[in-house]
Amino acid sequence: MRTYQCFFLGGGHVTASDSKEFVEKMKIISRSGELDSIKYMEQVSDRCYTYSESVVRTDTTDNFMTDLINEKFVVVVETH
To answer: Nearest Cα to 22, choosing from 61, 57, 59, 67?
Structure first.
């Protein structure tokens, strides 16, 4: 199984094997664990737009993670 180190623009990182785990770990770090994944992704997407007018999709965890990477909010390094 591949794992990835995901480093955030604002500092911090998580290790995840897929986009769903990535979102769940992001929620924990941000202390937003009580939100469902869609609501959490919507909040992050809104902040990304406010910060730099970046559009981050929230329809799937795959699209969400891909857009965060493409917009340089997250840098991913494959570890396995």
So the answer is: 61
Q: According to the model, what pLDDT value does residue 21 have? A: 93
What tens digit of pLDDT does each residue of 38-50 get?
A: 999 999 999 999 9
Q: How many residues does the chain have?
A: 80
Q: How many domains are contained in the chain?
A: 1
Contacts of 14 (CB under 8 A, 6+ apart): 5, 6, 22, 25, 26, 29
41 near 64, Cβ under 8 Å? yes
- Please give the Cα distance from 62 to 77 (Å, whole number): 16
**Side chain identity at residue 13, one-letter code:** H
Task: Say how many CA atoms lie within 13 Å of 33 toward its Cβ.
Answer: 5
Q: What's the gap between Cα 73 and its chain centre?
A: 8
- Domain containing 35 equals 4-78
